[in-house]
Amino acid sequence: MQKRIRNFSIIAHIDHGKSTLADRLLEYTGALSTREMTEQVLDSMDLERERGITIKAHAVRLNYKADDGNDYILNLIDTPGHVDFSYEVSRSLASCEGSLLVVDATQGVEAQTLANTYLAIEHDHEIVPVINKIDLPAADPAKVKTQIEEAIGIDCSEAVLASAKEGIGTKDILEAIIKNVPPPKGDENASLKALVFDSWFDNYQGVVVLVRVFDGTIKPGMKMRLMAADKSYEVTKVGIFSPKMTDTQSLSAGEVGYIISGIKNVADTKIGDTVTDAQRPADKALPGYKEIKPLVFCGMYPIETHQYEDLKVALDKLRLNDSSFNFEPETSTALGFGFRCGFLGLLHMEIIKERLEREFGLSLISTAPTVIYRVTTEKGEILYVDNPSSLPEKFLHIEEPYVKVTVFVPQEYIGQILELCQEKRGTQKDFNYITTERIMVSYEIPLNEILWDFYDKLKSVSKGYASMDYEFIGYQESKLVKLDIMLNGENVDALSLIVHKDSAYYKGRQIAEKLRQVIPRQLFEIAIQASIGGKIIARESIKAMRKNVLAKCYGGDITRKRKLIEKQKEGKKRMKQIGRVEIPQEAFLSVLKVKE
Amino acid sequence: MTGSLYIHIPFCLSKCNYCDFNSIPFKQQLADRYIHALITEIKNQSKDAPLINTVYIGGGTPTILDPSQIQKIIQKIRQNYNISDDAEISIEANPGTLDRTKLESFIISGINRISIGAQSFIDDELAFMGRRHTALIIDISVSYAREAGFTNISLDLIYGLPKQKVQQWKDNIAKAILLKPDHISTYELTVENGTPLAHDIINGKYTMPDEDDISEMYYCGIDALSAAGYIQYEISNFAKPGYECRHNINYWNRGEYIGVGSGAHSFCSGVRRSNTRDIKKYCELIETSSDAYEDQEIIDEKGALKEIIFLGLRKCEGIDLSVLPNEVSEKIKKAASDLVRSSLVCFEDERMKLTQKGFILSSEVIVRVLSGIE
Question: Which residue of chain B has the CA closest to A571?
């Protein structure tokens, strides 16, 4: 049975055509007729389709009759494509024996692709190179092949040339998978061991768990145990995605599919956990399980205080489907009641915020994202600070999280990239020519420094050609201070920031200046002050509003006038009143958008 | 019961760069069809109409029409409505579309007030706005109007043009005063989305004067006009005593009015309605059915209170709180208490008024009062 199974994933940079290729494979193997195809079937969340990225993992079974006359089962495990979700990627990869490495014939290898390819190689994957978009006039497959060989060291002599858009090379890809990706080698008779690589909450079925079975068999009626969570459930259904959810009798070693077992809370199904038979448990869980911890934090507050309960309900609901973010209540003197939320990264944060606003109709203020600092108090206690306003006034020392950032860049932009990394307090760790034209550099940089605009800047200084990846490496001591902002003499805690001492003065001035630009004039003058440890380091003022008047009322059109007034009234509602000052939403993020 | 009648003429010689009003360049054939529909609608709307105190023929540029067509319109109105003896009958005009014959014919038709869209007395500014006249033509138009027998002439002026300096605005006001109109309206230029001006501003071709300059223009306009004997009776309107525009006052007082023509608005029995703005569609609708309404809104008690506030506060006399239910007037007073402290609002004998400073911040003030009573 297992020798007719192939489990594979697709590694590609954003826009290199992963989703289109997946669609093409589905279509070719008849999993979906052309008529049934909505574009990019696998990216089913609206947000995913809009942003062209995959946020959650997916698994689809394809049936394929190969040229050797045999029928094969191919399981395609689609993985998230963003650095925020690298743990999920690693678990998806652990569920497969091989990967398609899809590289755009006009763009070449990117940092993200490389990082994921290395990850796949670490998981002993056979890599099947696919050069995509060969139909484009700018395509240079030969050059891209050399690049892959030089950068990754895999043989490209049999790389498949394809155009997913035009349907070129689809069959060759399928044949290459059969030929090169090894079949699973599990023991069907051993105790059950299945790897959880995704899970989500379904309103009708409860939690749906996606697994790859390594050993043994799982069937409805069985009692299963999640080893890390240490919880047992009765299996009610198992099945596969074809791509529609289809129940089956069982899932055996080598197979990929879903389990439904009356689990109510998605947080109980941790990605990377091992499912085993409660009656005949495996003695050891599958390797690689990690408890994932948020790296990036921000406060989320409803603009209208009465939406606090709605926000809580919405966060609870989202967490049902995404256990990788967390939240706990916090209070801000400026913003009232809200939540401090933790995310895997910035994209993750943006996605959650967008979903809260879009799917739950909330209007929110989110404070500037921050990392979690490790503070040693004078008494020698260790505090983890995820909100600048809770940094104690006195402490022994403070440490901040560092990441190792890997950047791939054509050599003509290397100067600007090095400058950018230096500016962000980076220490160079590696500098290699991958090919004669492409360089890989790695830096140790405080996570805080890359939070906001690093990626945008990286793209802009390299005209879009540089790509990056990062991983958390640990805490290091830093000279950090708290920068406070006051409006008309009142400290606005939600605007506080923790910044490096050397740039504190500059940042204080920049933020004061930026706030002067984003806070609209009001009926009175507003003083903006930035301070460090009570010492004022910058001040600005916003002059009182001089005029705000609607022009003539034309031909008795009172309705239009009323609408204009209502629009102004709505605009006012979207602002947060702090003391007497009304502050627009963007002010809370503008503190991060200061020039270096 | 008394009310007003508004007649819309949606044609102009050409479109000005700041204009997003309901108007299109003049075409004879379409104009003939339109007037025909208009006359039908005048008749259709007359059922249950109140006694008409004011008639306003606005646009567009009504004076672009042949005087006989204006005559026909007025005749039709007189045939179908009760017009009070001392009715104010206004026509809106652009300089350059006026000649002696036209003006005399208006007088004969019974039109007794003319509102001339002067906008500026600086030729460069006029050219910038895409106006088709020069300062000299304004002078001539005003003297022709006087000669024809108009005893109630109003001039419209616009301030706050890109690059305009306070001094230029002062010059404009001074020149307007020299012509001794009976009424002057001064409007700040509003940049409306979708106009050529908005496009130029977005593209950085022009920048608008800053808030401080605009407010200075507003104040020096008021000073110059009051020194010349014009009494401010609304945010943008000034008149010699007895020459206030009764038609507009009726709007602000929430009196009833019937609007006829494309895009015209009506307010009768607590319902606000508007006709379709599309001229061809308007003609079709009137030719095939009895009206051309596109939107209607029933003003409930809450809506009426909002209107009382935002319309009433535009007038210098403000709002009469004594006619409102006690709890409502208390609520308003409470909502305005901060604004009184900031000298934007004042209370005098149960009337709530904006101060001079309140006028130029009126939108802010009104929004605060409305939010406060919610």
Answer: B367
Name beta bridge partners: B208: none
A417: Cβ–Cβ under 8 A, 6 or more apart, which residues? A407, A409, A441, A458, A461, A462, A466
Helix (H) or strand (E) holding B136: helix B135-148
* Shortest alpha-carbon distance between residue B360 and chain A (Å): 5
* Residues B29-45, mean pLDDT to the nearest whole number: 95
Query: What are B298-308's pLDDT values in tens digits?
Result: 999 999 999 99
**Chain A residues inside the 8 Å CB shell of B272:** 558-559
pLDDT in tens, B250-273: 999 999 999 999 999 999 999 999
Strands of B345-348's sheet, edge to edge? B319-320, B351-354, B345-348
Q: Are A3 and A183 in contact (CB under 8 A)?
A: yes
Per-residue CA distances from A418 to A406, A429, A433, A450 (Å):
12, 12, 14, 14
Tokens of A560: 């239009």
Identify the pLDDT of residue B15. 84
Residue with tokens 């507050």: A301
Q: Phi and psi dihedrals of B195, rounded to 5?
A: -85, 160
Nearest CA in chain A to B343: A523
Residue B336 has pLDDT above 70, yes or no: yes
Interchain CB distance below 8 Å, B342 and A555: no
ipTM for the complex shown? 0.89
* Beta-carbon separation of B367 and A565 below 8 A: yes
- Per-residue pLDDT at A55 exceeds 80: no
User: Which of A523, A547, A551 is the closest to B215 by Cβ?
Assistant: A547
Bridge partners of residue A160, in order along the sequence: A130
Spell out which chain A residues touch chain B, with contact meaning CB-CB distance below 8 angstroms: 521, 523-524, 543, 545-559, 561-562, 564-565, 568-569, 572-573
Token readout for B164 is: 């305009």
Closest-CA distance of chain B to residue A485, Å: 26
Strands A160-161 and A126-132: what pairing? Answer: parallel
Question: A596 pLDDT exceeds 50?
Answer: no
pLDDT value of residue A481: 93
| Strand ranges (E), A223-287 | 223-226, 231-234, 237-241, 245-248, 251-252, 256-260, 274-277
CA pair distance A457, A242, nearest whole angstrom? 42
3-state secondary structure of A538: strand
Q: What is the mean pLDDT of chain A?
A: 87
User: Which residues in chain A are closer than 8 Å to B263, comparing Cβ atoms?
Assistant: 555
Q: Are A474 and A402 in contact (CB under 8 A)?
A: yes
Gap between the Cα atoms of A547 and A531, Å rounded: 32
Of the candidate CATH numbers 1.10.10.920, 2.60.40.10, 3.40.80.10, 2.102.10.10, the domain formed by B301-372 belongs to: 1.10.10.920
Q: Where are the domains of chain B?
A: 2-251, 301-372
The answer to whether the Cβ–Cβ distance between A569 and B370 falls below 8 Å is: yes
What is the per-residue pLDDT for A35? 52
CB atoms within 10 A of CB B25: 11
Tell me the CATH class for B2-251. alpha beta
Q: What angle do CA A218, A223, A229 make, to 5 degrees?
A: 95
A555–B8 C-beta distance less than 8 A: yes
